[in-house]
Amino acid sequence: MTTSRIKAVIPAAGLGTRFLPATKAMPKEMLPVVDKPAIQYVVEEAVAAGADDILIILGRNKNNISNHFDSVPELESNLTNKGDLEKLQRVQASTELADIHFVRQGEPKGLGHAVLRAKHHVGDSTFAVMLGDDLIDERDPLLPKMISENERTGLTVIALMEVDPEHIHLYGVASVEPTDDPEVVKVTGLVEKPKKEDAPSNYAVIGRYVLTPNVFDILERTEPGKGGEIQLTDALQELAVTDGVLGVVFGGRRYDTGDRVDYIKAIVQLASDRDDLGPALRPWLKEFAAQL
Fold first, then answer.
1. Which of 203, 204, 188 is closest to 238 using CA atoms?
2. Residues 82-92 pLDDT 10s
3. What percent helix, strand, coil does the chain show, rounded to 5?
4. Which residue windows are coiled coil (predicted)?
5. Which DSSP symbol is given to 180?
6. At what angle do helices 85-95 and 73-82 cross, to 10 degrees?
7. Please, how many CA atoms are within 13 Å of residue 262, restricted to the half-sphere of its CB?
């Protein structure tokens, strides 16, 4: 836990095409992971790391996200009248988490463009960017270490994780040098989604960043890159060469909800670990697995 106050930016403007037709009318960030939408886990993580001001970047048809973090007087009144205070508390929890703001991205021009939309809200402050596809287990906090490294050095800090080389083409990948801290590396370069044979390492960028405000000047002049989008990776590559970028290597529990199979795994893993669901779920899982 850190006592520092930092603004957090959560890009949530993606189309979620891998989950169609479920995401035809529902944002992928609102897909439930057990009994909370994925984006609520990310907001809770931000708050636990000291963020009390959160900006969510929305795309079209994403009003469900802002509705989720708003109060629902009719539902709350109904639960109160029923005396169901446990459910009432869970409903109110998302409303009371933090000071949450929303801005639209407009055209879906990539992650770099989404981050750039936060410029006026963030101003001259260092800020965190948190992607909703990556859920970090609350028992393995990552963001506090990243904020601490930024405060110590004044540099941009990104989260890295060692991945199987067979999957490296799915990520931005960093070339790195060691530092005195085994959990921290110096990032010397970045490349977006390289082929396995072209990857400079197996250190993949995962969806947590602590960015200094000079990233906005770089993003404003960054040309569209891979996929015709403005890539945050390209701006970070420039920062790595000019100012310096650090990477915090994460070895904890992470759940990738951007892929259908991994999304299902995340639900099973998190539900199995819960005191209210695990005792009933784990024996069934063992029986089910034995039949396969």
1. 188
2. 888 888 888 88
3. 40, 25, 35
4. none
5. S
6. 160
7. 11
